[in-house]
Amino acid sequence: xxxxxxxxxxxxxxxxxxxxxxxxxxxxxxxxxxxxxxxxxxxxxxxxxxxxxxxxxxxxxxxxxxxxxxxxxxxxxxxxxxxxxxxxxxxxxxxxxxxxxxxxxxxxxx
Length: 110
Fold this sequence. Notes:
By secondary structure, the protein is an all-alpha fold. It is about 70% helix and about 0% strand. α1 runs antiparallel to α4 (about 75-90). The longest helix has 27 residues, at about 5-30.
């Protein structure tokens, strides 16, 4: 065992604990707090969804059609938060390692 391995284990534990805490904070601030609270994870999910919605809105010609598309923005965003929380809560590896999301889900299956 290399001499710096215990330090890496502590750093991995601390970073994993931070991911779990931030995920729980994001979930609580979204569904429990009666007012809006800022969460970076929520901003990423809703920002990405907004880019997709804006692309779809380019093809809508009338105001009614644009309004009908935008009506789905918040419900889809909230539904996307759940698998995002699940993935970030259950993954103990950084996302840059090249592992697929399905592998993370299989490790966390209930």
